[in-house]
Specification:
57% of the residues lie in helices and 7% in strands. By secondary structure, it is α/β, with parallel strands linked by helices. Strands 3-2-1-4-5-6-7-14 form an eight-stranded parallel sheet, with helices on one face. A six-stranded parallel sheet has the order 10-9-8-11-12-13, sandwiched between helices. Helix 15 packs antiparallel against helix 16 (267-280), helix 16 runs antiparallel to helix 17 (285-297) and helix 18 (301-314) runs antiparallel to helix 19. The N and C termini lie far apart (148 Å).
Length: 841
């Protein structure tokens, strides 16, 4: 008789867990999951099932499901080290570092000799930004196991985060002694060495990392950044391109690449790189900010402003974005909005020197000089080495005729220039000092700070010789401006049989008559105000320009980055700036023997070329309107009128003291000046009163819209008094063209010798003096000898018709001979050299 089958035994929970663990280890996770769940269905607090299923869920990245399982395991066995370790890991992965820290503290209480517990606690403390506490935790791990590699690495990182770079370096070295091929340590060690200014060692560290792993993106990125900081831009670009070949979506590499392209003024390519990065991170504030910087270089100010607004939407408290937003609004001629943006930036960071300086510039443009000076003073006090704050402050004090402050600032300016530590500047050497060496130092400092392309200009282009020399005049001032009004007649007269004359304007179109005349006068006129330097240089190359003539020098609106790219075989400085540009890529400066004697060559980067008469052109087509009555001009009906229509920043304390002594000597005389900013006029009135002169005898002429009216009113003055160390230039030509004699004093530098050149060229060399004592004596003599003064006025009136100063066709021939000689020297393969143009009839 058969036996009945014996009943099968039900497996225990422990057996099911072991079966599930076997499947788990084989990677059969779904089956293991089902078995773990079956155990927990009958025994919800089973430690092993909770712990192992929690581990499985973490392996699958299902952190939210893993956490309650791990918490169940910990509740079941509060001192189980494996569960506490996993709880800390899960909470860390879920971004709950404070709770993770508690789990690791409990784990350390259970396992006080577990280096991994100390290490993981250190990681959580690092994530909390508690680097000093993290360092203690890593040291505790290393006290248990000195060769614990993760703790050695993170200890070094913590020291670097604490800016203890020497200790960090030693920690990386200790790790590399244990693990010589630790690529991340070698890379981060390179970063620390760079912070210690050990650049050669830093590069070597990156190179060791890349020798082990040529595709290590961080090493490539960091080596590229170091090369960028050393000015090795092309090598840096290679590094970032290699990083992107490994990881095309690496945002850091795309951003770093764009930063280098901005440094080398290739903004269009920078925009392209940033666009790729922004496609991956559309709202990234830093990328949007950098894209705005690239658009600014391209002079696309409206687009740059829009990008800054997007950046601020992502990061509203970005001071640098608010500052740059102010700059863009200023460039777009929206000054009040610019000031509001600067105000927001300064509310967040009151001591930001750059923002204070920029706000000062806009306030100056609005005529709010006292507020501007306060901003400049604060910026300079906060950051004495700011590249522009001192210069702006110095020029502002000149502009308001605050001579006490001018005198106080002068020694500091002189010391900076004399010791070759001059800050980049456009202004103060010309107006403070008659020292050409100072001007050269200032110009070179400006180029070093502002024009990276000037450091290594490309080779001169090869331009074929043609029947005509193609001359390009470059300026930001083709508008109602002294440069334009002086030049327009010359441009109209250029000989088109031998020359093609091109205008390149990177300034605003003011729709003035002189702008229209210039556009018509040039054979071709290119408005490139919205183009970057690279694009303008490429235009000149495409046009095949033989000689590029820069009319700006280092004046407001200058674009030295254009000629720094050497777009023309011959590059010339002329007219707009009475000093050296400091640029090795400017071959010649057009001048004359009076303004720029050859003994001044050591102080000029450009080779001096002498025109036979005065270098300065004039517009002899200008008419004068009917002469107004004195009373219409606010002048006394009788009495001697001394006149000076120079801008306020050209008036020195020494000039004004002479003028006041003249008023004291000449009864009933007045001093007639141009209308100035309110601060300057108030200061001049106070200075007059301090020297015993009734301030009412200093009269300010309002600005007139029509040049013919301005010229005509000169006839009601008796004598024009020049300034020193910076003479009247175009202003003096206006006076002479109107028939008003000038007394000048010859200075030691180009700006102070123009008056002498003008007077010699108009046949009145007798009005040139050698010092202020002679200047004062001559002015007083003329004011008391009406017969002599009337004779001089008659000579001036007669000489207007034929003197070299007003013979623009004669000047045109001399300038063209100079251009031809420059080209012949170049065509023979010779270096630029000095020559003098012989007078032609």
């Amino acid at each position: 008789m058969a036996k009945p089958p014996s009943p099968q035994s039900t497996p225990s929970a422990a057996q099911v867990v072991q079966q599930a663990l076997g499947l788990h280890r084989q990677g059969r996770l779904r089956e293991a999951d089902v078995l773990y769940q079956s155990v927990l269905a009958g025994k919800p607090d089973d430690f092993d099932a909770s712990y192992l299923l929690g581990m499985l869920k973490m392996q699958q990245g299902q952190l939210a499901q893993a956490l309650p399982l791990i918490e169940t395991a910990v509740r079941t066995k509060p001192h189980a080290p494996e569960a506490l370790a996993m709880l800390g890991a899960a909470l860390t992965a879920l971004g709950r570092p404070a709770e993770a820290l508690g789990a690791y503290e409990r784990l350390i209480g259970v396992r006080p000799r577990d280096p991994d517990a100390f290490y993981n606690r250190g990681v959580v403390l690092t994530n909390l930004g508690r680097h000093a506490d993290a360092l203690v935790s890593y040291d505790q791990a290393l006290a248990v196991r000195p060769d614990h590699t993760p703790s050695l690495f993170n200890k070094a990182n913590a020291l670097a985060a604490l800016q203890q770079f020497e200790r960090a370096r030693a920690a990386y070295d200790a790790l590399i002694a244990v693990v010589p091929n630790h690529v991340d340590a070698l890379t981060d060690r390179g970063n620390v060495l760079a912070r210690l200014s050990c650049r050669a060692e830093a590069l070597a560290s990156f190179e060791r990392a890349l020798a082990i792993n040529p595709g290590h993106v961080n090493a490539l990125n960091n080596r590229g950044n170091l090369l960028k900081d050393q000015g090795r831009y092309e090598e840096a670009l290679v590094m970032f391109d290699r990083a992107l070949a490994v990881d095309p979506h690496n945002i850091a590499a795309l951003s770093n690449r764009a930063n280098v392209l901005l440094e080398v003024e290739r903004p269009a390519e920078a925009v392209e790189s940033l666009d790729r990065a922004l496609a991956l991170a559309p709202g990234h504030a830093e990328l949007l900010f950098n894209r705005a910087c690239a658009l600014e270089q391209l002079h696309r100010f409206e687009e740059a402003l829009a990008e800054l607004d997007r950046s601020l939407a992502a990061k509203p408290d970005s001071v640098k974005a608010l500052n740059n937003r102010g700059n863009m609004l200023a460039a777009l001629k929206r000054p009040e909005e610019a000031i509001a943006s600067y105000d927001r930036a300064l509310a967040l960071e009151p001591d930001r020197a750059d923002t204070l300086h920029n706000r000062g510039n806009v306030l100056t443009g609005l005529g709010r000089h006292a507020e501007a000076i306060a901003d400049y003073q604060r910026a300079f006090a906060l950051e004495p080495n700011h590249p522009h704050a001192f210069d702006s402050l110095a020029f502002a004090q000149l502009s308001v005729c605050n001579w006490a402050e001018v005198a106080r600032l002068a020694p500091h300016a002189e010391e900076c220039l004399r010791t070759s530590a001059g800050r980049p500047t456009l202004v103060y050497p010309l107006y403070y000092f008659g020292n050409q060496a100072y001007q050269l130092a200032a110009a070179r400092a400006y180029l070093r700070a502002n024009e990276p392309m000037a450091r290594a200009p490309p080779a001169s282009p090869v331009v074929a010789a043609t029947d005509k020399l193609r001359i390009a005049y470059l300026s930001s001032d083709f508008r109602f401006h002294p440069v334009a009004t002086a030049l327009v007649d010359l441009i109209e007269r250029h000989d088109r049989t031998g020359f093609e004359i091109v205008g390149v304007s990177f300034g605003r179109d003011d729709a003035s008559d002189v702008r229209s005349r210039l556009v018509r006068a040039f054979d071709r006129f290119h408005d490139v105000a919205d183009e970057g330097d690279q694009a303008i240089a490429e235009l000149l190359r495409r046009l095949g320009v033989h000689i590029a003539v820069d009319l700006n020098g280092l004046t407001r609106g200058c674009r030295p980055g254009v000629l720094a790219r050497r777009p023309a075989p011959i590059q010339v400085a002329y007219l707009g700036y009475p000093g050296t540009t400091g640029a090795d890529y400017i071959d010649y400066i057009l001048a004359d023997a009076t303004v720029l004697p050859l003994d001044q060559q050591p102080f000029f980067a450009e080779t001096i070329v002498h025109l036979p008469d005065c270098y300065h052109p004039s517009d002899t087509t200008r008419a004068l309107s009917a002469t107004p009555h004195r009373t219409e001009l606010g002048l006394p009906a009788t009495g001697f009128v001394f006149c000076c229509f120079n801008q306020s920043h050209k008036i020195s304390a020494a000039n004004f003291a002479v003028w006041m002594r003249l008023l004291a000597r000449i009864d009933g005389s007045v001093l007639w000046l141009s209308h100035m900013n309110d601060c300057a006029m108030d200061n001049l009135r106070r200075a007059a009163a301090a020297q015993g002169i009734d301030p009412a005898r200093v009269i300010f002429a309002p600005r007139l819209d029509r040049i013919e009216d301005h010229l005509a009113r000169h006839r009601q003055a008796d004598l024009f008094l020049d300034t020193l160390p910076y003479n009247a230039h175009s202003t003096a030509i206006d006076a002479l063209w109107a028939g008003l004699p000038i007394v000048t004093c010859t200075g030691t530098a180009f700006p102070g010798r123009v008056g002498a050149s003008l007077l010699k060229a108009v046949g009145l060399a007798e009005l040139v003096t050698a010092n202020l004592q002679d200047y004062e004596a001559l002015a007083a003599a003329l004011a008391t000898d009406r017969t002599r003064l009337h004779a001089i006025r008659r000579i001036l009136q007669t000489n207007r018709a034929g003197a070299p100063l007003f013979d623009v066709d004669r000047l045109r021939r001399h300038v063209e001979v100079a251009y031809e000689a420059m080209w012949e020297i170049h065509a023979r393969g010779e270096r630029p050299r000095h020559f003098r143009v012989e007078a032609v009839q």
